[in-house]
């Protein structure tokens, strides 16, 4: 199977597989406040991700690596959406375009369509410093995402089986790159043990990429005969992952993602300590099924609704949100208790 066929299969399966809603967002309830002393006019959605200033806490997360016309067109449309709605955007893995220069246009188009926006480059943890520099140069990127995807690789028949040396390579990259480095998961969540290893090598921004949304184990298992079905339910739910990493490392910038589908999910992720929130499968589904205009409308609606929820909670800034009273129920409560997080 060619790489671009595999990537197209990912897109197709992502639309139908794995929006399972096991994220934990439904276990969080805000405590209603009758006297919030707030006005929607005062609400600011501005946030910081390391040194980067974002006008809203939403970003479009990495999708559609590899080459091919269809991929390039999706990247072009995502770039237009990001530019028009002024949200940051990550591209999918650039490794194949580094190895095969005919694929570079798939990425260049993103900067061309969004000359002034915040764009994140993307590579896996097998990348060298040189490849990281090339990925950033290709897009004049404002940051580099490095994805960790061991479970996806293990479920892919043609995937990697050797995950040694990743920390050492990332340590080199973070020292030598001129832009911030964000280490992200891809839908299996990040534990505090992983976050600890990352902080020890100088990583200051992580994206938990939690369980409960796009599920690459299910996607890969749909594509093969011999199933590794035990990986279908493997992972740390998004809400647990945000809470556990942020509580354990308050100085770490945490990005929340994995199964985010609405404004209330976004506000919940922020209230648990995320500085910004990534959407991947949800926005791709709207783009492919309803089109570019609908996707932009959805992002604008989500932004507007975040303002309404913040007003109801009496929070005028993203920082205020982190103090909003809430209760945690069910599996999420149990999980956090077991992990000693209160
Ligand atoms: C992805 N994702 C991804 N992540 C990454 O770091 N590099 C990549 O190349 C890709 N490719 C990719 C393709 C497609 C079709 C999808 C849907 C997703 C993972 C993505 O960034 C995100 O971490 C997960 O999808 C979980 O978020 P959602 O989809 O549940 O919002």
Q: How many helical elements?
A: 15
Q: What's the helical proportion of residues? A: 40-55%
Portion of residues in beta strands equals: 5-15%
Low-confidence stretches: none
- Small molecules held by this entry: ligand FNR
Shape annotation? globular
Count of extended strands:
12
- Quote the average pLDDT: 95
Through-space gap between termini: 47 Å
How would you spell out the order of helices and strands?
Answer: HEEEEHEHHEHEHHEHEHHEHEHHHEH
**How are the strands of the biggest sheet laid out side by side?**
4-5-6-7-8-9-10-11
Structural category is alpha/beta
Could you give a short account of the major beta sheet? 8 strands, parallel, barrel
Counting copies of identical and different chains, the oligomeric state is: single chain
The radius of gyration over CA amounts to 19 Å
């Amino acid at each position: 199977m060619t790489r671009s066929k595999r990537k197209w299969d990912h897109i197709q399966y992502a639309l139908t597989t794995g929006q399972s809603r096991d994220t934990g967002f439904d276990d969080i309830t805000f405590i209603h406040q009758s006297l919030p002393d707030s006005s929607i006019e005062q609400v600011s959605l501005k946030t910081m991700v390391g040194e980067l200033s974002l006008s809203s806490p939403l970003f479009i997360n990495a999708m559609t690596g590899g080459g091919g016309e269809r991929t390039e067109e999706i990247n072009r449309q995502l770039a237009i959406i990001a530019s028009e709605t002024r949200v940051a955007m990550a591209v999918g893995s650039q490794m194949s375009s580094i190895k095969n220069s005919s694929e570079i246009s798939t990425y260049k188009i993103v900067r061309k369509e969004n000359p002034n926006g915040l764009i994140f480059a993307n590579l896996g943890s097998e990348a060298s410093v040189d490849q990281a520099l090339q990925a950033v140069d290709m897009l004049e990127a404002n940051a580099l995402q490095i994805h960790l995807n061991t479970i996806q690789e293990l479920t892919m028949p043609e995937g990697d089986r050797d995950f040694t040396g990743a920390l050492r390579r990332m340590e080199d990259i973070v020292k030598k790159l001129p832009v911030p480095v964000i280490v992200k998961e891809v839908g299996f969540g990040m534990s505090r043990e992983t976050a600890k290893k990352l902080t020890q090598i100088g990583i200051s921004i992580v994206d938990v990429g939690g369980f409960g949304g796009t599920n690459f184990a299910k996607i890969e298992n749909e594509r093969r005969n011999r199933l590794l079905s035990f990986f279908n339910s493997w992972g740390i739910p998004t809400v647990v992952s945000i809470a556990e990493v942020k509580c354990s490392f308050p100085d770490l910038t945490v990005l929340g993602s994995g199964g985010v589908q609405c404004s209330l999910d976004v506000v919940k992720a922020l209230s648990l300590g995320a500085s910004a929130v990534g959407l991947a499968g949800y926005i791709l589904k709207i783009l492919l099924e309803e089109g570019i205009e609908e996707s932009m409308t959805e992002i604008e609606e989500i932004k507007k609704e975040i303002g309404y929820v913040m007003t109801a909670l009496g929070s005028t800034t993203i920082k205020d949100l982190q103090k909003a009273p809430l209760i945690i129920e069910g599996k999420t409560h149990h999980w956090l208790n077991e992990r000693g997080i209160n």
